[in-house]
Design brief:
The chain is an alpha/beta fold and 325 residues long. The chain has 13 helices and 7 strands. The protein has 2 domains: 41-248, Rossmann fold (3-Layer(aba) Sandwich), CATH 3.40.50; 264-324, no CATH class. The longest helix is centred in the last third of the chain and has 33 residues, at 250-282. It binds guanosine-5'-triphosphate and magnesium ion (MG).
Amino acid sequence: MEALFEMIRRGDRPALARAISLVEDGAPGSRELVQAAYRTPGNSRIVGITGAPGVGKSSLVDGIVNELRSMGRSVAVIAVDPSSPFTGGAILGDRVRMKHRTTDPHVFFRSLASRGHLGGLTRATGDVLTLVGVAGFDDVLVETVGAGQSEVDVMKYANTVLVVLSPGLGDAVQTLKAGIFEIGDVFVVNKADLAGADRTRAELEMMLDMRPPGGWRPPVLKTVATTGEGLPELAGAIEAHYEYLKSSGGLKARVRNRFLASLEEYLKREMVDEVLRAASASGELERCLAALEAGKDDPASAASRLASQYRAASSCSALVPSERS
Ligand SMILES: Nc1nc2c(ncn2[C@@H]2O[C@H](COP(=O)(O)OP(=O)(O)OP(=O)(O)O)[C@@H](O)[C@H]2O)c(=O)[nH]1
Ligand SMILES: [Mg+2]
């Protein structure tokens, strides 16, 4: 693992790819690798790209990679697919379009899928981003598909979040519903070659007008990812937002948020495992399940009962040392 870590630090891409697989699988030694990574902080800029399926996120990523490469920056792309626990990312593989990029040594591409362990993907993503940072990429682009909480959770790891829409799908309203509107730092109306782009843009501007004034006003940009139209402006907006973060102290807050988000993911697992273990040992889990099967309980009530029993038990055991002293 030490040798592997050193190779990653030197920017060895096959080593990075291997390490990511180990982390994804929770393989023996992967924890040490991740521990070392967090202690060797990189300073990659992390840009999240999110939006409804098919709006053109991957095409945009491709275009942004081109722009960043022309600025001499190295780029890693992590495509996260929380919606494919059954395909193991096979569909994502089809979605991913990075045709001519594979030969460029300054571009790294990797997709992450749930592989059945639901909930674990968000944890793994935080760790993978840290590993990629160790490899010293200037930029890391994180694309996520699917809608809902997992998407928002993954975006907590980003410094700058691009929310992508396409015209004519009533998307502006949909996006607002999913809670994704709130996290957008830059809005992109892609497929601006299609009818309705200006209307979508106006809708977004109107929604932004309703936000309390002050701070960063997210720009709304039009792009045509397939032709590259608007891509230089988009790269400029990413840069401008990052500069804003640096000068306003917001960057520190984002990084802190990222650690908080990771911590939260791990704590959730720790606590859930622990409560379940205790409930299983006391036989309470069995009783809960039996009551649920018999139609005499509901999961929310059962969960709050298990949690309060756990709290009661742990406060008792916490009292033991002080009683002794
Ligand atoms: N007309 C037009 N088509 C576009 C544009 N950008 C992307 N497309 C097409 O839209 C389709 C979906 O593009 P993707 O880049 O795969 O979209 P995505 O958001 O990554 O899709 P998922 O990852 O499946 O959610 C492809 O057929 C693209 O060629 C654009 O600006 N204009
Ligand atoms: Mg895609």
